Structures are given as C-alpha cells and as structure tokens.
Amino acid sequence: MCTLDKRGDIFFLTITGDDKHRLNPNLIESLRSALCKAREQSTRGSALITTACGKFFSNGFDLAWVESAGSSSSPSSAAHDRLHHLINLFNTLIADLISLSMSTIAAMTGHTIGGGMMLMISHNYVLMRSDRGALYMSELDIGMVFPDNTSVLVRSKVGSAAERELMLKASKLRAEEAVAMGIVEEAHCSAEATMEAAVRLGEKLGKRKWNGEVYAEIRKGLYPELCGVLGLANKAAIASSRL
C-alpha cells in the first residue's frame, strides 16, 4: 500500500498499489505504520516527503468500500457506520502528520481529490506538477456533506478565498491557480522536477537540525482548532538542549 525509504536525513513515503490510491482502512493503517517508523527513526534534521505512484496522489475516500457494508435490514445504516469509522481512522492519520517530529512535504505528482487533498494539506509544504493533475474537493458534486474535520482542516490550512473556491464551487484547480491561492507553495514542470524540488527543500530544512519534538509542538500550536478536533494536546514548554 505504501513504502518508506530513507536517504540521508530524508524519509520518502510513497503510496503504491492501485493507481487511484483510495483511502480505506488498509491504506490508512499502512500510512500510519510508515509514519510511526519514520518517527522512531528520526533525528535532528529529518524531513518527510510524501508522494504517490501513477496518475493519482489519492482519489479520496474509498466510497465503494463504504457502500459494500454487509447486508442487513438497514444497509444505509451499515454504510453510515462504516463511513463514520473511516472518518475516525482518517483523523488519526491527520493527527499523526500534525504531530510528526519533522518537517513534512507533499510532492503532488498526480490528481488529488477529496480526502486525498486533506491528506495533502496536512503537510507543512506542498509542491505540485504543472503539466498534469488537479486539486478537487468533490463532495458538493457527489452530494456529500463535509465532515467536521474536513471543514476545520481546510479553514486552518488555506485562506477564505481558497476555501470558498474548493468547498462552495467545487473548482478543479491546476497548479498555477493553487499557487496563486496559497494552497501550494510551488509549481514545477514535471513529476521529476517536483520531486527534485521537494528533495532540495527537505535538505534545506534539514540543515537547520531543529529539535523534532519542539518542531511538532510549534506546528500544533499554529492550529488549535484543528488539534481540538483531532484530540491533540499541547505539551508544556520544551527546553532545547541547544539553548
């Protein structure tokens, strides 16, 4: 479902398998396991780059898995329960990223839709290829109300203009538009150029050799509403050994 490789101080988390990379319990648990390993192996100067193989970064929640809930006298209720379970699992994945003890970079080399976009913006920095791929919140078009965690995450991570464009217009944004709205830091001409830029950024950040625990607490402090939804508590002030 995903692989984790380490080269120098940079961890490369790559979503593999089915080209659409839909978020279901198997993929979420695979991503969480990889993040746990990165956390355990991290040192000062570590950084994480997340990307995916194929046409998609992620095509969002696996609604086919949700709707395939076992037959019962109330199949719609079973599907609702399964969707609620999936949202709760996804919250734990977002919490893992928000509390991760290193810089995080999403290298968008394919389409990013719905929950995939939530995964994307949970990183500190986002770089995107300009020759292919779009960002798209599909919920309005498919008649699905946004979960509370989605609204809070978008509100915490992007500006109000981008929020309206994504959530109230269901716009499909290309890289240049996403950069202009502040959703994406940089656009690059190809998948290769995007990954190269992500590595350069990871190396640049890693040279600062920040205390990872301090880094994570500062990140959490930037998003108090989101951390409240995710159940992430801030720790007491941490004194760095370098001070």
UniProtKB/TrEMBL annotation:
Keyword Isomerase part of the UniProt annotation: yes
Domain of life: Eukaryota
Keywords: Isomerase
Protein name, UniProt field: Enoyl-CoA delta isomerase 3
Native source species: Camellia lanceoleosa
